[in-house]
Amino acid sequence: MLFKLPLAYISGMRVQLITDTSAIVRIRHKWINQNPFNSMFWAAQGMAAEMSTGVLVMQEIKKSNRTVSMLVTRQESEFFKKATGKILFTCCGGNKIKEAIQKSIQTGEGQIVRLTSKGENEDGVIVASFLFEWSLKVKK
């Protein structure tokens, strides 16, 4: 991560778990990623949330043995509580991604997959929710 995504590495973001259907990315509130209100900057949260969706997309692309273009085309977010301490961003959309890639293989057309990542603090409280729309298209 240091060489491919240096900002993510420096911020302390780490992939904690990845399975066929879900991914968890951890980020901790610290000086380097804080805002003036002594909580985690929204962009640091967004980076971790996007990573939890993106690693699932990259994993499914690798499994497909195809060349697939991937691009975030839309993002929405909601914030519910200050993000302090350790925050875990979880995405459980692996099956949606697999279906979208299979459909793109069958039709030759790009597909949009909507993936949600929820950020939970150490007390189990949801602090933020992010929605990412990924455009996936299998190249011939």
Describe the structure.
- The chain is an alpha+beta fold and 140 residues long.
- The chain has one domain: Thiol Ester Dehydrase, Chain A, CATH 3.10.129.
- The chain is 31% helix and 37% strand.
- It has helices at 6-11, 42-64, 94-107; strands at 14-18, 23-28, 68-79, 86-91, 111-120, 126-138.
- The chain has a 6-stranded antiparallel β-sheet.
- Strand 1 (14-18) and strand 2 form a beta hairpin.
- Helix 2 (42-64) packs across helix 3.
- It is elongated, with a radius of gyration of 15 Å.
- The relative contact order is 0.22.
- The mean pLDDT is 95.
What does this entry show, briefly?
The protein has 140 residues and is α+β, with helices and mostly antiparallel strands.
Topology:
Blueprint: H1 6-11, E1 14-18, E2 23-28, H2 42-64, E3 68-79, E4 86-91, H3 94-107, E5 111-120, E6 126-138
Antiparallel strand pairs: 1-2, 2-4, 3-6, 4-5, 5-6
Helix pairs in contact: 2-3
Count of DSSP H/I helices: 3
Write the element-wise H/E pattern from the N-terminal end onward: HEEHEEHEE
Task: Please state the structural category.
Answer: alpha+beta
CATH topology: Thiol Ester Dehydrase, Chain A
Strand order of the largest sheet: 1-2-4-5-6-3
What is the top-level CATH class? Alpha Beta
Number of strands: 6
The share of residues in extended strands comes to: 35-45%
Give the biggest sheet: 6 strands, antiparallel
The total number of structural domains is 1
User: What is the first-to-last residue Cα distance?
Assistant: 29 Å
Mean pLDDT: 95
Known CATH architecture: Roll
Shape: elongated
Q: pLDDT below 50 for ≥5 consecutive residues: which ranges?
A: none
* CATH homologous superfamily (4th level) name: Hotdog Thioesterase
Radius of gyration: 15 Å
Q: In percent, how helical is the residue content?
A: 25-40%
